[in-house]
Amino acid sequence: MSIRIRRARTIAAVAAAGALALIVAPIPANAADPADVVETTDLAAQIAVIPAPSSLDATGAAPVLLGSGTVIKIHPLDDGAAAVGENLAELLRDATGYAIPVGQRAAGASQGATIELSTRGDAGLGDEGYTLEAEGTQVSVEAHSAEGLFRGATTLRQLLPPEIESGEASDVAWAIPSVSIGDAPRYDYRGAMLDVGRRFYPVDDVKRFIDQMALYKFNALHMHLTDDQGWRLTVDARPELTQIGASTQSGWKPGTGEPWFYTKADYQEIVSYAAEHFIEVVPEIDGPSHAMAAKASIPEINCDGKAVAPYSGFDVGLPTICLTPERRDEVRAYLRDVLTEAAQQSSSDIVHIGGDEVPSTTQEQMDWYVQTSTEILAEQGKRVMGWHQIGASPLPAGSIMQWWADAGDQASIGTPNERPDVHELRNALAQGATVVASPADRSYLDMKYDASVPYGLRWAGYVDLERAYDWDPISVTSSPDGSVSLATEEQIAGVEAALWADRAYRGSNSLPTSLDQFIPTSQYADFTSFPRMPAIAEVGWSSADVRDFDDFERRIVEHADRWDELGIGYYHAPDVPWKE
Ligand code: TNX
Question: Which is catalytic among the residues 135, 300, 330, 357?
Answer without folding.
Answer: 357
